[in-house]
């Protein structure tokens, strides 16, 4: 039985990751990215250090309700200022390893949720 969610072809789904590259709809994107349901942008996260600035500027004027942060191979804590800022904007935010973030993004996209994922390359 195939349980792969049906994702409309105009949506950006993560089809692979590893070796510093993400595959989005089988197209390679090198380095850290932020993926939205309809587009992908580079994410200027320096040395894997999360800052409010690196996330806020990339997420201005979006209608997301959920932001998933993929923090690489090792889990890290979400800085309190980032959490407060996004919760004040009614955006739920969660941090997990990049692999878990990729899988979670795809599931939420399949549920037609307004989701974005900020992903550190692994």
Protein described:
Helix content is 25%, strand content 28%. A hairpin with a 2-residue loop joins strand 2 and strand 3 (27-30). The model has no long low-confidence stretch (mean pLDDT 90). The chain has a single domain, classed as MTH938-like (Hypothetical Protein Mth938, Chain: A), CATH 3.40.1230.10. It is globular. The protein contains three helices and eight strands, in the order βββββαβαβαβ. The protein has a five-stranded mixed β-sheet. Strands 1-2-3 form a three-stranded antiparallel β-sheet, with helices on one face. It has helices at residues 52-59, 80-88, 98-110, and strands at residues 14-18, 21-24, 27-30, 33-35, 40-42, 66-70, 92-96, 115-119. The protein is α/β, with parallel strands linked by helices and 122 residues long.
């Amino acid at each position: 039985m195939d349980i792969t969610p049906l994702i409309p072809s105009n949506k950006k789904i993560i089809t692979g990751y590893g070796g510093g590259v993400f595959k989005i709809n089988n197209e390679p994107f090198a380095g850290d990215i932020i993926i939205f349901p309809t587009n992908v942008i580079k994410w200027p996260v320096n040395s894997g250090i999360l800052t409010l600035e690196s996330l806020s500027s990339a997420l201005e004027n979006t209608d997301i309700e959920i932001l998933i942060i993929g923090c690489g191979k090792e889990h890290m804590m979400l800085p309190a200022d980032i959490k407060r800022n996004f919760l004040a904007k009614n955006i739920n935010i969660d941090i997990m390893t990049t692999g878990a973030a990729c899988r979670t993004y795809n599931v939420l996209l399949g549920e037609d949720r307004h989701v974005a994922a900020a992903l550190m390359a692994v």
